[in-house]
UniProtKB/TrEMBL annotation:
Keyword Oxidoreductase in record: yes
Family annotation (InterPro entries): CO_DH_flav_C, CO_DH_flav_C_dom_sf, Diverse_Substr_Oxidored, FAD-bd_PCMH, FAD-bd_PCMH-like_sf, FAD-bd_PCMH_sub1, FAD-bd_PCMH_sub2, Mopterin_DH_FAD-bd
Protein name: Aldehyde oxidoreductase FAD-binding subunit PaoB
Signal peptide: none
Gene3D superfamilies membership: 3.30.465.10, CO dehydrogenase flavoprotein, C-terminal domain (3.30.390.50), Uridine Diphospho-n-acetylenolpyruvylglucosamine Reductase, domain 2 (3.30.43.10)
Keyword flag Oxidoreductase: yes
Protein keywords: FAD, Flavoprotein, Oxidoreductase
Molecular functions (GO terms): carboxylate reductase activity; FAD binding
Residue ranges occupied by any FAD-binding PCMH-type domain in the UniProt entry: 1-219
A Pfam family it matches: CO_deh_flav_C
Documented EC number(s): 1.2.99.6
EC top class named in words: oxidoreductase
Length: 326
């Protein structure tokens, strides 16, 4: 690990000012410290923001508000979260080991870097690490890579489980920087790689995530997260699906579906949702939605299995969501 300095910010203003002069925010550090050890990330100055009071969890007129510095374990165990948005609690438990959940912050989870092995290999070309150097994964080992949203410059999958469920739930996020405060959907945070895969999100220098708002609604009563992975104890998703259904008098009034492990960002499945609207929940309509999930997929040499697995994961997640007793 290369030398670096550490500054402790006591409030948002101190943190933002320090970041504008070249510092990097750190909370739990579960991703950043690993990358610094491997010299993939080389910040000269870190800004410890743990003293900034952003670790709250509360209800606001039926919506769930989660501060950016709330720890994953605290959010997963919180009674307000489990009552209003049980999908969030389930996703967090599936998303990391207990040790990581105790350290990792909600904001940090949403901004974690990709898990493509070539990103961490300093002797391999990677456009995320060194722009315009090439992408070793396209013709290399790519069994875990994206089948949606990739480009000739990057095919790395987005790693966050939580982001998938937040996108499905149409959550918004509030950020603050030198130009003031703004809010936008969590889905809008993430960029497609295109020709600039090193630009992963829409935050500008110095902006600090303040909190996440998850809107309430009937869909939260029938919601589940299904994660398919190589090992059950702890692993990143090969394919995952967050499904939330608003079922009124035995008919799906509204459906929200997002998938992980298959896209270069959390992937909203709007075509699948349209198939379900106005239908009675059941295997036939769920299979129709699953087939729609395959549209637009572009598999690589090593991950063709993900196309069929995506279809089956969507079907099973919808079944699980429909079976929840409200």
């Amino acid at each position: 690990m290369l030398p670096f300095s550490m500054q402790h910010a006591l409030n948002e203003s101190e943190a933002i000012e320090a970041a504008l002069s070249g510092g990097r925010y750190i909370a739990g550090g579960t991703t950043l410290i690993d990358l610094m050890r491997e010299e993939v990330e080389r910040p000269e100055r870190l800004i410890d923001i743990n003293a900034v009071p952003l670790d709250y969890i509360r209800e606001d007129e039926g919506d769930l508000i989660i501060g950016a510095l709330a720890r994953m374990s605290d959010v997963a165990a919180d009674h307000v979260v489990r009552r209003l948005q049980p999908l969030i609690a389930e996703t967090l438990v599936e998303g990391a080991s207990p040790q990581l959940r105790n350290m990792a912050s909600i904001g940090g989870n949403l901004l974690q870097r990709v898990r493509c092995p070539y990103f961490r290999m300093l002797d391999a070309p990677c456009n995320k690490r060194v722009p315009d150097s090439g992408c070793a994964a396209i013709d290399g080992l790519n069994a875990g890579h994206a089948i949606l949203g990739g480009s000739a410059h990057c095919v790395a999958t987005h790693p966050s489980d939580l982001a998938v469920s937040l996108v499905a739930l149409e959550a918004t996020m509030r950020v603050r920087g030198s130009d003031g405060e703004r809010s936008f959907p969590v889905e809008a945070l993430y960029r497609l790689p295109g020709t600039t895969p090193h630009l992963e999100h829409m935050l500008v220098p110095g902006e600090l995530i303040i909190d996440i708002r998850v809107p309430g609604g009937n869909h939260a009563r029938h919601a589940r997260y299904l994660k398919v992975r190589d090992r059950a104890s702890y692993e990143f998703a090969l394919v995952s699906t967050a499904a939330a259904l608003d079922i009124v008098e035995g008919v799906i009034h509204d459906a929200r579906i997002a998938c992980g492990g298959v896209g270069t960002k959390p992937w909203r499945m709007r075509a699948c949702e349209q198939v379900l609207a106005g239908k009675k929940p059941g295997r036939t309509v769920f299979e129709a939605a699953g087939r729609m999930a395959k549209d637009g997929t572009v598999p690589l040499s090593g991950n063709r299995y993900k196309v069929g697995l995506l279809e089956r994961t969507v079907i099973r997640a919808l079944e699980m969501a429909s079976e929840v007793q409200s």
